[in-house]
């Protein structure tokens, strides 16, 4: 399948349509895959000096959303219909989180993505998530 939105187009989309996702950085886009970086700062930390679960959930969700848009184009109304996330180990504080997504299914009305989240510089994942997205019908 051909990529419909490259890194620059995804960053432009975020700036114009999805202000809540500002701060996420797309590092790589390929056929049904994407890598998104979250530069971590104090607002992402929870007591104990680790990155919060909601921060990792949001990274997984945004990553699948951007992977989907990269493949189908700027359909802002694609929405999450399901998510399962496993928090596997404590993320490192003071380094970026890196999310790598593969779209396992890209159908006409549903997409399923698998995401591994790592702390930059570490090989073992800190979280794994699977998300399903509903794709709006063509009008």
Automatic annotation (TrEMBL):
Residues 48-124 form the Thioesterase domain. GO terms for cellular component: cytosol. InterPro entries: HotDog_dom_sf (IPR029069), PAAI_dom (IPR003736), Thioestr_dom (IPR006683). The keyword Hydrolase applies. It comes from the Bacteria. One of its GO terms (molecular function) is 1,4-dihydroxy-2-naphthoyl-CoA thioesterase activity. Gene3D superfamilies: Hotdog Thioesterase. The keyword Hydrolase applies. Keywords: Hydrolase. This is Thioesterase. It comes from Pseudooceanicola nanhaiensis.
């Amino acid at each position: 399948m051909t990529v419909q939105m490259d890194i620059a187009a995804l960053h432009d989309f975020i700036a114009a349509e999805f202000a809540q996702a500002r701060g996420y950085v797309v590092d790589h886009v390929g056929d049904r895959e994407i890598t998104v970086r979250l530069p971590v700062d104090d607002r992402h930390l929870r007591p104990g000096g680790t990155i919060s679960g909601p921060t990792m959930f949001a990274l997984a969700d945004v990553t699948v959303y951007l992977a989907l848009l990269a493949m189908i184009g700027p359909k802002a109304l694609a929405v999450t219909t399901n998510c399962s996330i496993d928090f596997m180990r404590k993320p490192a504080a003071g380094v970026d989180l890196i999310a790598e997504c593969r779209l396992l299914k890209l159908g006409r009305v549903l997409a399923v993505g698998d995401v591994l989240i790592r702390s930059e510089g570490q090989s073992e994942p800190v979280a794994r998530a699977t998300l399903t997205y509903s794709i709006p019908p063509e009008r």
